[in-house]
Each structure stands twice: as structure tokens, then as C-alpha cells.
Amino acid sequence: MNRDETFSPLFTDLYELTMMLAYGENHLAAKATFSLYIRGSEWLNRGFFVAAGLEDALYGLERMRFSPTDMDYLQSLNLFPEEFIRSLSEFRFTGDVWAMPEGTICFADEPLMEVTAPIAEAQLVETFLINTLGFQTNIATKALRCMHAAKGRPLVDFSLRRAQGLDAGMQVARSAYIAGFTGTSNVLAGKKYGIPVSGTMAHSFVLALGGDVEAFQAYARSFPGNCIFLIDTHDVFEGARSAVNVALNMAKEGHLLKGVRIDSGEMVETSKMIRGILDEAGLGQVQIIATSGFDEFEIDKALSGGAAIDAFGVGTKLGVSADTPYLDMVYKLARFDDRDVRKTSPGKITLAGEKQVFRKTDRTGRYVADILGTRNETIDETEPLLIKVMENGLLILAPPALQELRERIRTGFSNLDDGYKHLDHSDKYPIRLSRRLSEIQ
Amino acid sequence: MNRDETFSPLFTDLYELTMMLAYGENHLAAKATFSLYIRGSEWLNRGFFVAAGLEDALYGLERMRFSPTDMDYLQSLNLFPEEFIRSLSEFRFTGDVWAMPEGTICFADEPLMEVTAPIAEAQLVETFLINTLGFQTNIATKALRCMHAAKGRPLVDFSLRRAQGLDAGMQVARSAYIAGFTGTSNVLAGKKYGIPVSGTMAHSFVLALGGDVEAFQAYARSFPGNCIFLIDTHDVFEGARSAVNVALNMAKEGHLLKGVRIDSGEMVETSKMIRGILDEAGLGQVQIIATSGFDEFEIDKALSGGAAIDAFGVGTKLGVSADTPYLDMVYKLARFDDRDVRKTSPGKITLAGEKQVFRKTDRTGRYVADILGTRNETIDETEPLLIKVMENGLLILAPPALQELRERIRTGFSNLDDGYKHLDHSDKYPIRLSRRLSEIQ
């Protein structure tokens, strides 16, 4: 979203607008509180989440305005009375928002956000909030799982071409960066967010130049200090030997080859053999970068097999969160007109009341358990995670810099026990209800 | 994309820009042709595809301009010579584009587009083209599979909240509509594309009003001619009986209840029992709309089980194409400087040369086979599918209206045999190479 612009509240489901009208006509103007959370389920293969997307969500809430053409369009539907449509020109989001700060390590079934506003307003923003927080939380989580699997090796986001649309490509670059990636291939994300950008050459470059050696030499002329050669256009081992030859010539002119990239095929044995070829030529400093189909599972498989990979480009499967392309994020009415409420249809339990998430840590900062309580209680020796970030529709905290988010996620993740970080069959982090919250269910 | 604006070429991978520089510095300015296609593979559970996204792709190509801030940003990277960056202010995409018209039924491993331009230009647009065509083709295909499974029942796109970002939500609504969906819940897509919008009420509405009956009555007061009641906030059968009571009162005032909506739980037996409750009350015209977790597989399962469902809201799993969240769409150099070229690394075969896809049909229009040939050959009794849509960077065909795309997809799909439409283990549509194309491989 461009921050200088308003944001159209028509980015919503029609029923949010029909309900707005019906609330108004039935004189329901009282305040409501909605809880936003990820519904846990058997199939959800995630031991933890990283809350993300709050900055965009709050910017959107601040900037929601019905434009004249928005109102003309609604008029054209012949569904809403003119008076209702006229009233939309005054619309502002005037609510309060409590949320976990972006970058908080969190878990399914605990609120990441609670929105309190006159019910029509709180209802209208549902679709936008789930869209924004759901996707970014999903990607930041996937990216942090990749970081965990890579055991300290640098990762770069290469997903732009396979992201689900333009906006998704931008959000993925940002979400991966705050999770600890060293950079992105996405140049526009570099410009917009200040994320380091990186990139090398494609197979088409090697083909156009007519061969590995020609391509490597040409690239080295243009970027002598910043070369990573793509070695698998034809035969990866010949490619490696060509890279060695060009690198040795570069060395004579004082330039070091940074790395070679492998983009296809089996990775474990190949990378070890390439390492051998490089080392034998005295090019121990040349890194091997692998970029084919990686996500946390493939990174883990390669490294467990002993692959000699120094860094990964992580693309498609990160960009769409291929194993879990959506989260079951929901936004449920928890309180209305001073009444705690909840939906009771079978199988999907929601919690009534305005809530707080209290995190219990041990003396070293290690996360022990979360307690879901009511918003106004205090629980000794815990930290409340939901912070008031918006009041009467205005931001009350400036969004943190990306570097600060990186640090917050790094620290938070280090406080989480390894049992909750397994890529599959992770332990379930303990979450319980406070007595006060239990009593109002 | 807003069509009045320029589009930043920084929406690309950094290597496209580093290669541009290296091409220039190595005096490689000749024309290149890249083929864009979906790589077929064992795991790809799709018997056919629907080409989509061409309108956005061509608009983007026409509007690509480096802004002053784009150039300042590139300068700040200390990676490119000033002269190169200055030259970008002149950048226009000046190439020719051949493409399958949007809405063409097509298959893996055949080109959906070929781009011919000076190699630096053709290279730069790779990322954007794959992003745009890949995602929309994926969603239009998923949506058409849903249409097939629904056997004539109306489908509505409900995916906005779970789409991967803002832009994805818009693209999904459009892609689903051209595939035959009757509408979308996405109001902004209704405004932008003229897609019919629809929507009803949420569980929060029922909770806020205090009960099923109160909520249904209130909604009927606001939208007497346009009511679909959500009946599963508490107990779905009680909800159905409440809907009957309110509907009978509405009838006295001359208003017909349009439908009831079920959003959770088991669907087959539930829908049959609800049908019984409605019919017994003489409400045979009231439709049952189901909206929980549907995609082509779940629609098929429900209908095969005999569910009494008249229409489906199709949400999350469509919006992210949950079973296949990305396509392996690639953009491969096929010709450069009057030389046919291809990458030969093992396992991933690409085809050299400028190509055409020739479709063989029988006398009734039924698709028999596709023949991949060279662009300049003619093959009797076939229709060439790749059309020149852009010349020297300018659109030479106005994009078709969405209604025309709907009709094109409907007709094309009716010409495809059922064997290629199975949701799983579809037959493989025959594609062969012409002799002339074989000879240049």
C-alpha cells in the first residue's frame, strides 16, 4: 500500500457492508470487540508463529476512506439506501486496537489482535485485517523455519516471480527479511524497505554469451568484485571447472570470485564434488550457493545429507508457503454492548470476552507457557503480549524499523525451546486459560 | 495495477538488471526470443490449464518506466555505472509479444507466450511476466476445475480474506469470474471489473442481534428482497427452523427468502435434512448455499454423496490454489542473434527456436491434439494459438471484455474431452512436435 494514499474500504466482502447497514437500521451502534487469531488444527504443521503485518494493517486502518467513486459504485448496486451511502463519506475507523507487536513469537488459538470499535466499523475491517496479518504471519513463520533449518547459513529470498501477485512479492521480501534473511532478489522491495538486494546471472545469460567460460568472463568484466557464477546451464562439473579457470584469471587481477550457484539436480553429492573441485584449485573461499526448490524441509534434507552448501536462495516454496499456503486466521466477535459473546457451533470453539495473552518466562527469559486471561486482570510474573497500538483510530506507536524487528524475532526465537521448533511433529507449546477467562465462557 | 500509472521495472530480480548491464558492456544488443510455459511434471495434478493474466501483463509491459527515484535507488547500490543508470531513463519495452489469447484452454510444456526483443529488455521483464501470468493462470484453472465439479451449480468467490495479499485478492476475483463463477464477495473487484458482488451475513451479526430469529428479522427488514440467512451460528437445525419461521412471515408481506447458508460441519446429511425442513414448510424455492472449505475436490465429494446444495461459496482453497499453490512456469531463452538455443542441463528439457502451437480439432470443434511447430511453418487443418498481441512495445489488440472471456472459456472447455478433466489422474492431452521443430533441437 502506498502510504500517501487513502485505502479503499471496498477491499472487503460485501456482507461487511450489508451488515453495516443492518446494524445501523437496527440501532446497533454499541462497541464490539473482535479477536483475531489462528485457529489451531490437527493438520497445521507449525509449532510456532511469527506475528507479522501489523504495520500495513494499522496504516490501512488509518487511511480507510470511501472515495466519491466508491460511493457511486455502491449506489449503482441498488442495494443500499442513499442516506446510508452519503453517511459513508464521513467514515473513519475510530476504534482501539490491541495487538502483539510485529515480530512476536506466538501460537495458534491465542489472539494476535483485538479490535474494539462501534460494531459496524469493527465489522467492516475484518476482511482487510485477516488478509494482511494472515499472509505476512504465514510467510514470516515459514521464513523463520527456513532460518532454523539452515543453522546459521545465509538465506536470500528469490521468490518474486512465483509469488501470488505483485503485492505478495513485496510482502514476502519484507517478511523474510525480518525473519533473518540476509536479503532479497526483489529490487523494488530493496527500494521500498531498504532490504539488501542480491543477484547473479541466469541460464539465458550463459546461453546468450555462447558458453560457460565466455559468460563468466563477461560477467567478471562488468562486476569484478561481485561475481557468483551459475554453473549448471549445461554440465555442472564442467561449469565448476570453467568457474575455476576464470576465477584463477580474476585472481591475477586482484579479484576474488565470491561463489558459484547450482540451480538444479541432486544437491548433496553434487555440492560435495564441486567443493572438491574448488578446494583442489585453492579456491577454498569460493562459496557454493544452491537455489533449486528449497524451503525448510529441503534445506534440512540437504544439510542432514552433508551437502557442502554455504548459502541458499529460497524461492517459490517460501513465497507461497507451499506446504501451508494459508492459515485458518479468523476474526470473531467476543464482546458486544458490554456482553461477552461467542459462537457455539460444534467443532470450532471461540472464546468470549476481551482478552490478554500473558507470557510466563523463566529467569533466563526462556518461554515457559502462555496464559490467556481477561484484558483487565494481572497475572504475576508474566508479560502481557497485547499492546494498545491504536486509540480512537490513531496510531499511538510508531512502527519499528526492520532492523529492530529482525532483532526482536532473533531474540524471541532464541527464548523458545527447540522442542517447539521441529519442522514436523513439533511439541505443543502450553497455553492455558486463566480462571477469570474460564469463568466467562 | 492502476492503468493510469507507470509500472516500475524494479519489480524484478536484481540479476535481470546486472545481466542488462553485462549484455550492454559485452555489446550484446541483438534480439532474443524467450518462451514462457508451464513445466509439466509428475506431481502436477492438472489435465488442462486456462491461460490468464495477459491483459495485466501487456499493460505492465506498455507502462514500464524507470522513475527518477528508481534510478536514484539503483545509484545508491554502487553496483552500476552512472552511464548505465542514466540510460535507463530512456527505457521502454520495444519488443514483440506472441501469446495465447486470455481464456485459451492450454496444456503444460507448450508456450503460452513468446517475447522477442533486444535481449536486455526481454530479460528484464521475465520476473513480472511469470508472476502475472503464472498466478492468474493457476487460479483461473483451479476455478474452472471447481466449475466442472459443481456440474452447473452457481459458484461465488469468497476468498478475499485468505488471498496472499491485496493484489492477489483482486486477481482471484477476476480469474474466477472469467472461469464462470457468478460473482464475488470482493466489493473492490466488483467496482474495478464490473463483477457481480454478493454477500449475506456473518456469525457476528447473529451474535450481536442476540439470536437467529432476531438476526434474520433484522436482516429481512433491511434487505427484504435479498435475504440469505446464515443458520449455523449455534445449532444448524434450529437455525433452519428459525429461518422457516421468518420466511413464512416475510411471505405474508410478499417477500421470498432466497436461501440459507451453512458454513461449517458435515455437509451431506446436514444439507439433506435442511432441505427436508424447508420443503416440509413449503419453501421449496429456498436455496441451500454451502461455504465451508470448498474447492473442486470438496464440491465433488459433497455432490457425489448426494448433498442437497444448490450453490457454493468457494473461498480459501481457491484463493491460494491450495493443492497446487504455484505453477512451475518458466521463461527460457529459445533464440538469440538468429541462433536457436536451449539449456541442456539434465531433467529439464527446453525447446529451441521460435514456436507456434497448432491445435488440431475435429469437425465438431473437439480438441484432438496440439502440435508444437516452428513459428513460420503452416500445418494443415490446425489453428495456430499464439497470436501477435504486441508489436514494438505497443498493444495491437484491445483486451477483450470479461464477458467475452467467460464465453471463450466456456466454449473452449466444452471442446475438451472429459478424460482430460478428471480432478485426479487426468488423461494426458496429446502434444507432439512438428518435424521442423524436432529438426532444430
Features:
homodimer, 441 residues, alpha/beta, nicotinate phosphoribosyltransferase, TIM Barrel, 16 helices, 38% helix
How is this structure best described in words?
- The structure is a homodimer of 441-residue chains.
- With 441 residues, chain A is an alpha/beta fold.
- The first copy, chain A, has 2 domains: 14-139 and 329-353 and 385-439, nicotinate phosphoribosyltransferase (Alpha-Beta Barrel); 154-319, TIM Barrel.
- Chain A contains 16 helices and 19 strands.
- In chain A, strands 13-12-1-5-3-17-18 form a 7-stranded antiparallel sheet.
- In chain A, β6, α7 (166-178) and β7 form a beta-alpha-beta unit.
- In chain A, α2 (54-63) runs antiparallel to α6.
- Chain A is elongated, with a radius of gyration of 25 Å.
- The model of chain A has no long low-confidence stretch (mean pLDDT 95).
